[in-house]
Amino acid sequence: MAKLSAWTKRVALILLSLTLALILATTFVPWPKISSYQVLFNSLTGIGSPPSAQTTKHTLVVPPGFELSIFADHIPNARLLKIAPTGQLLVSSPRTGTIYLLTDHNHDGKAENITQLIGGLQRPHGIDLYNDGRNSWLYIAETHAIGRIAIDWHTGKTLGDYESIMTGLPDDGGHWTRTIQFGPDNWLYLTIGSSCNVCLEADVRRATMMRLRPDGSDSQIYATGLRNSVGFDWAPWNNALYATDNGRDLLGDNYPPCELNQITAGGFYGWPQINGFGEQDPDYGKDPDALLKTSISPSFGFRAHNAPLGIHFLRHPSLPDNYQRTALVALHGSWNRSEPDGYKVVALRWDGTGEITSEDFITHFLQPNGQIIGRPVDIEEGPDGSIYISDDYAGVIYRVLYK
Fold it and tell me: Which of 24, 195, 307, 381 has its CA 20 to 30 A from that of 316?
């Protein structure tokens, strides 16, 4: 194990050096602080070396009345989640090019069957379902394209061929993940992160949210200035669309904040000219064409470098009253600050006036001694009220249930 750890550190240092050398060569900025080389290695490669799933299970802390268990483990690079009509759980594994189907046959809260539903994809990330009256479709966002395939959920088998409905998405540079989700209006929404830490993009689709019809037609840019919005969801009480967004790097430990934005059609959310709540970026904020006056400020600010990813508004009626206007957000955790931060799931609550407050929901992915045992990514809710959380560092799906 010591040899593996040493090898991991050596490879991490090589990759870090190459990556940061590229940053320095193109932007002439200071070297960033590194809080965890293992997490940086995981960020670059998707490979982690965490404690066992059982150790993780007995270490994590949830609020009173909730119970946490391991639903599935040994799922490499587990990222985005979706519940199938049969109650099975879908999970994307970008590094293996696979969408897995997880089945709990005896309803004991643990997946007995983990099957590859479809493989051979190019870093599949976002997944969603759509029924057009003839077929039940699984939509998949790869780095370069969006495709779909018909599924017979009773047999758990694909029907026919996988077909692309949108191709030619920008797949160079950084922020390779693509997230998709159907909205209440039956449009398919798509987020595409920036190609860089901070820059003026050549491709107008970068750092945006787009939308398109289920057949791939009528694609359009819906909102701009979103550096890397990996997660988004609609509030069930008013259908307002909210998206997380990761702030830029290399401006210190505590700046700028990561963001939660309420997305409106045609909205501009600041990047790269504006950080956080209306503050001009030191590199790009002095551009007279920066749209400074039209930028929309966040609805809520997370701590810098916490890397908010998946967001899910809780909907199950069995939850306590104080969780009825609540979204869970996965804070993936920092790699580029002197002390690690984030590494938890938080509950955001909306009061009657729309003000948002935050409190911890799952903690101790970051141990008091600084050890990191997991990195939460996405949240999904099952028909029985189960809350599933993916962890791409530990390769685990957690299940949280209110007792």
Answer: 307
